[in-house]
Amino acid sequence: APNHVRDAYALIEAHYREELSISDISIALEISPYHLMREFRRHTGIPMHALQTQFRVELGKRLLRQGLPVAEVALAAGFADQSHFTKRFREIVGTPPAAYRRNLQGIGA
Questions:
Q1: Terminal-to-terminal C-alpha distance of the chain
Q2: Phi-psi region for residue 20, left (φ > 0), alpha (ψ -120 to 50) or beta?
Q3: CB neighbours of 46 closer than 8 A, spacing ≥ 6?
Q4: Chain center to CA of 39
Q5: What is the C-alpha to C-alpha distance for residues 50 and 65, in angstroms, rounded to an integer?
Q6: Distance (Å, rounded) from C-alpha 91 to C-alpha 5?
Q7: How far apart are CA 21 and CA 28, in angstroms?
C-alpha cells in the first residue's frame, strides 16, 4: 500500500477513540480527502470510518471481558452512547454486548 494509506491506518489506530474526521486525516497527511478515501478503500478493502469502528469494537470486547458495564465500555471505546455502541457491536460481532459478556461469564463459570 502507498505510504499515505499506511500513514492513515496508523493515525486511525493511534487515535480511534477520538473524533477523527477524514478531513483531519487528510490535512495531517497533506493529501486530498477524496484521493485518500479512494486509495484507502482500494488498498484495505474498507472505508476509514469502518476501520475506526472496528478498533472501537475490539476495545469494547476487551473491556467487556474485564467485566465492565456496557454503558461504561461504550464511552471508554469512544462511542457517543450505549445504543450506538450496541448497534455497531452487534453488526460486527453478531451479538449484543450484554449477551457477549454473559456468554463469557458462562464460559468462565
A1: 45
A2: beta
A3: 54
A4: 19
A5: 23
A6: 25
A7: 11
Q: Give buried/exposed letters for 42-71 (b at 16+ CB in 10 A, else e).
A: eebeeebeebbbebbbebbbebbeeeeebe
Cell numbers given for 16: 480511534
Cell numbers found for residue 68: 465492565
User: Whole-structure pTM over 0.85, yes or no?
Assistant: yes
Q: What is the pLDDT along the chain (109 residues), one digit of tens a residue?
A: 899 999 999 999 999 999 999 999 999 999 999 999 999 999 999 999 999 999 999 999 999 999 999 999 999 999 999 999 999 999 999 999 999 999 887 765 4
